[in-house]
Amino acid sequence: MNIKHFWKNTKGSFTLEASIVFPIILFTTLLILFMCMYQYQNTMLKQAASKTSERAAYTWDNSHKDINTGAFPQGQDDGLYWRIADDNMISGLFGWAGAANTANVAIPGGSGGSLPANKLAAAASWIPGKMSGNTTYNNHLMMRNVNTTLSEPISLGALERELGHPLRSEVSASSVVVEPVEFIRTIELMRYYGAKFTGKYGAAMNMGRAGTVLQWFSTAAGS
């Protein structure tokens, strides 16, 4: 058999090339489709987490606000001292041991209890049941933020069978609670107590004693 004649013969070359190239093209196409489906579900989760955090942060100053529009009935609010009694602003300032400066609500079906938890539950009430996770409020006095973490099973049966375990997508989104007027008040409060504690304008104030008085005041305001 003439080897040179065999290599120069083009009969069947299309079939041979197709049998090599087509599986590569098919595999690449399926891989791109799987990646697109995964990215789509990931994007939907990210949008839901961002939406929940932003709605909670936007309506944080009044639990009576509509979670979609921000509107609330005239005269309906959380009271004058809710930041002291329920938002634990003073505990953040004085660093009380064991002070609860966070709130957490499970998704789905998480219920409230405290005022921050009620606000989180209202913001997360629209999330579809197939998504699970939690939304958390953190109060660090100068920085207050709402963080939402969501996860959802990814329905890619063929890929799951190959990997041998189910796939889940998980994302997080955070939004800062912004209250310009309250932020200025907090700065002024810190400046005031900073001067008192250091004795800048007279005898230095005892931090523990001041904290005890304000703790009593916050308890009385919340009752």
TrEMBL record:
Keywords, comma-separated and alphabetical: Membrane, Transmembrane, Transmembrane helix
Membrane-spanning residues: 20-38
Residue span(s) of domain TadE-like: 12-51
Keyword Transmembrane attributed: yes
InterPro entries tied to this protein: TadE-like_dom (IPR012495)
One Pfam family here: TadE
Name of protein: TadE-like domain-containing protein
UniProt organism field: Paenibacillus nuruki
